[in-house]
Fold:
Amino acid sequence: MLELPGGIVTGGTFTCDLCGGTFPKGWSDEEAAAEAEGLFSPAELEATSVVCDDCFRRIMPEMPRLRAELASAAEAEGVSFEEFLRLEARR
Ligand SMILES: [Zn+2]
Structure:
């Protein structure tokens, strides 16, 4: 399972997929979706996990490296980057 920042959540609280903590929602689903759409491609959004602000800030600097790793993993499996993300999201 991929760990990508997102914040697309429902209900009054959400559970961070990275640290496992439970947090009150700091923004609406619409705001979260808009923010995520600005940062990620559609395939990446499908693979998005919900993470808290702290984890989000921690992993954002890692995104270029993570994307590079995913790109080589996709190449190794002979699928496109987008296809690979969709496959990963279902694992
Ligand atoms: Zn967290």
Residues 16, 18-19, 21, 51-52, 54-55 surround zinc ion (CB under 6 Å).
